[in-house]
Amino acid sequence: MKSVKVYHYDAFSKQPNKGNPAGVVLDGDALTDVQMQELAFKVGFNETAFAVKSEVADLRLRFFTPGHEMNLCGHATMATIYALKTKGLLSDKKDLTIETKAGILPVTIDSTREKGISITMNQARPKFKPFHGSVRNLADALGIAENDINNDLPILYGSTGTWTLLVPIKSLNVFAKMKPNNKDFPLILQEMPKSSVHPFCTETYHPNADMHARHFSSPYSGTIEDAVTGTASGVMGAYFAKYINNTTQNALNLSVEQGHESGKDGRVGVKMTKHGESYRVKITGSAVFVKDFEITLADS
Q1: Which helix (H) or strand (E) holds 84?
Q2: Is residue 294 among the annotated active site residues?
Q3: What whole-number distance in Å separates Cα of residue 218 and Cα of residue 76?
Q4: Which domains, ranges and CATH numbers included, belong to the chain?
Q5: Of 38, 47, 99, 225, which one is the catalytic site residue?
Q6: What is d(CA 4, CA 191) in angstroms, rounded to the nearest whole number?
Q7: 192 and 129 in contact (C-beta within 8 Å)?
């Protein structure tokens, strides 16, 4: 029987048990794909990240939900880089590259005594695709009324590394009554049956936040809701710049709040820089160590 140490960090928060929990395994090279999947299932977080060696970047990160591997995960990236930095495994390096299934992405670490460690990671270029499904069925699957969805804005699939369905909501009070039936998502999301669903609005709890959201997982991932999502916040920021703000600004900085309904209350910084007709997207956040524990793997 093989035992593996897993570190629990909460990302997009500096307070334990807030933000979004991620499992971090620092010796991923010692594990097979099957063992990584087993570990992620037993850990049970929305994502567990595995740091492995890379031949093309400073390191490679692999991300697993309890059900399958992901191309990219923002909060698990934050957690892993924070773990490596605080454990002295990155020496004084402030700029590095990470290899992911979404591409090779730059990461910048800023550390000050006053503010602590802040991590900024580039996202893949934002992409959008139309949703042609039933809005009524989508609303039913979220446990809300069809007229709770803001039909002045488009419902779109968006990705800066991982696809999610962006659903504009009219008002903040709608989010508390959402009760997703995740198992219904694949039939409704016929263009992308494995996509997650990300309802959002521009009304917020915090006066200095720009957007509020919840994030509901694909049923294939084995989880229900992601407390505070990095990649979805990134593409949501690009959506804001393209469909809501819609100005000629070359740069836009947003603060995204998420996790209030589950008592997590995390925050993601999102920066968009306009490049032609598209945007380059960066997300910024921090993390905090919670605990470590051992997971025993089945014989293989």
Answers
A1: helix 74-86
A2: no
A3: 17
A4: 2-122+286-297 (3.10.310.10), 127-284 (3.10.310.10)
A5: 47
A6: 38
A7: yes
Give the distance from CA 28 to its chain's centroid. Answer: 21
The strand pairing partners of 236, in sequence order, are none
256-283 tens-digit pLDDT = 999 999 999 999 999 999 887 788 999 9
Highest mean pLDDT among 162-176, 241-255, 274-288: 162-176
The answer to whether residue 300 scores a pLDDT higher than 80 is no
> Is pLDDT at 248 greater than 70 in this prediction?
no
Q: Residues 49-65: what's their mean pLDDT?
A: 98
Per-residue exposure over 113-148, b if at least 16 CB sit within 10 Å of its own CB, e if not: eeeebbbbbbbbebebeebebeeeebbebbebeeeb
Tokens of 39: 């570990």
| CA–CA gap between residue 65 and residue 26 (Å, rounded) | 17
